[in-house]
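[recover] target loaded
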């Protein structure tokens, strides 16, 4: 079923636009090697499944799951190193978008849809992924929990909508936090079911489901 094209689309980043593991996993290994070398954390690299299944959460919740036995100082250092390694990786050309993302975004932009990112990630990470991958000119704004210090994506999306005076928008994402952010702000939600980071129940309540990013174009008139 086709729907009227909204004024704006708000996209989650990790697991929705960006195939995060293609950048994250090499950076994760490097960060823990460095933590071990400097003696900050010497218990080895926690299972990668822990961080992959935590994507979309706020950073403090991610590190509480990945390093439950470490104190705040160790978690902050791990966070710092992981960001550094991911930025270095981006500069080397690591990391890819999901198939169809770039072309679909370019088509939506050409139709006059305002494009935004709304992510629970760090400001530098979110901006660098979009900028260093060459899609910066397509987006009206890049919103992150890191920059706006929001406690939930609901608040982040509310700030974005108010700041740009947006009357109609869709929330597009792969996690329950995206569904919640859309629903609590009165937006239709498109659930992306191709990353497989979350539980099967993640997208309960989404208005539309896509299993391929390019299918987004089929939903709009």
């Amino acid at each position: 079923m086709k729907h009227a094209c909204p004024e704006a689309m708000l996209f989650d980043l990790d697991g929705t636009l960006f195939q995060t593991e293609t950048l994250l996993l090499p950076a994760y290994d490097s960060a823990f090697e460095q933590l071990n070398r400097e003696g900050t954390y010497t218990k080895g690299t926690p299972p990668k499944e822990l961080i992959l299944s935590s994507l979309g959460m706020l950073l403090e919740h991610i590190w509480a799951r990945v390093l439950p036995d470490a104190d705040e100082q160790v978690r902050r250092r791990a966070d710092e190193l992981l960001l550094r390694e991911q930025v270095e990786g981006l500069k080397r050309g690591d990391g890819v978008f999901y198939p169809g993302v770039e072309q679909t975004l370019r088509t939506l932009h050409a139709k006059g849809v305002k494009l935004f990112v709304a992510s629970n990630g760090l400001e530098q990470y979110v901006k660098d992924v979009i900028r260093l991958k060459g899609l910066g000119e397509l987006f009206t704004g890049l919103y992150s929990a890191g920059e706006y210090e929001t406690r939930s994506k609901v608040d982040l999306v509310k700030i974005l909508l108010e700041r740009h005076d947006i009357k109609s928008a869709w929330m597009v994402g792969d996690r329950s936090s995206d569904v919640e952010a859309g629903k609590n702000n009165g937006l239709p939600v498109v659930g992306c079911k191709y990353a497989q980071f979350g539980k099967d129940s993640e997208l309960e309540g989404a208005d539309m489901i896509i299993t391929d990013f390019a299918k987004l174009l089929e939903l709009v008139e």
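[recover] notes: The mean pLDDT is 94.
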